[in-house]
Design brief:
about 210 residues
């Protein structure tokens, strides 16, 4: 009579643990790589949109003689109000001082097609919005603003409160934070950690 062995082939606990660890490592590498690629794509998009806005601002000044002046709006510290003013100015709805331009007198839009994402505040969140034909009139248009890939308004200011020439235009980057220079600088400031991811990296302090 043959003896039947009680031992059966299979994975030991150690082998299972090794497999689980390997799977975890591979998943971590994949996740990190995907985040890096996504972050790089968002940074590239922000840089491209800032370049498009800067070009539109220079074209605006070439025809209007000056950049849209944020010191003409009621709350110059409100980045959403400044963003909305930037959009309305470059779209031809208001002049450089924020006064409404009659529909028949409106000129061309300086904004290039769909290269800029528009955002709107929805409670405590910001969301991408597409304006309908009915909303493309000043009376019914919501307070939209050019929005960066991290759902925050691009920071625009002219004239600059820190004393630098030209306009201020930048994204706060992935962390949504940056230093604020509300008074004239007498020297180049020290760059803070929260400014490391600003786009472009030279704003707002021109380090």
């Amino acid at each position: 009579m043959k003896k039947i062995s009680a031992n059966k082939s299979g994975f030991t606990l150690v082998e299972l643990l090794v497999v689980i660890v390997i799977i975890g490592v591979l998943a971590g590498i994949t996740f990190t790589g995907a985040n890096y690629l996504l972050g790089a794509q968002e940074e590239k998009q922000a840089a491209s949109q800032i370049e498009a806005l800067s070009l539109a601002l220079d074209q605006y000044r070439s025809e209007m003689g000056t950049y849209p002046a944020t010191d003409s709006i009621s709350n110059t510290d409100d980045v959403f109000a400044r963003g909305a003013f930037l959009y309305l100015s470059l779209s031809g709805y208001v002049d450089s001082e924020g006064d409404e331009i009659e529909q028949d007198d409106r000129g061309k839009s300086f904004l290039p097609g769909d290269s800029i994402n528009l955002g709107i505040q929805e409670g405590s969140r910001n969301e991408i919005v597409t304006l309908s034909d009915d909303e493309l009139t000043l009376g019914s248009m919501p307070e939209v603003f050019p929005m960066d890939p991290w759902f925050e308004p691009y920071i625009y200011e002219y004239p600059r409160k820190d004393g630098h020439k030209g306009f201020l235009l930048f994204s706060k980057g992935p962390d949504g934070k940056s230093s604020v220079f509300a008074q004239e600088l007498t020297a180049t400031p020290k760059k803070e950690l929260i400014d490391e991811d600003n786009i472009p990296t030279s704003e707002p302090g021109k380090w």
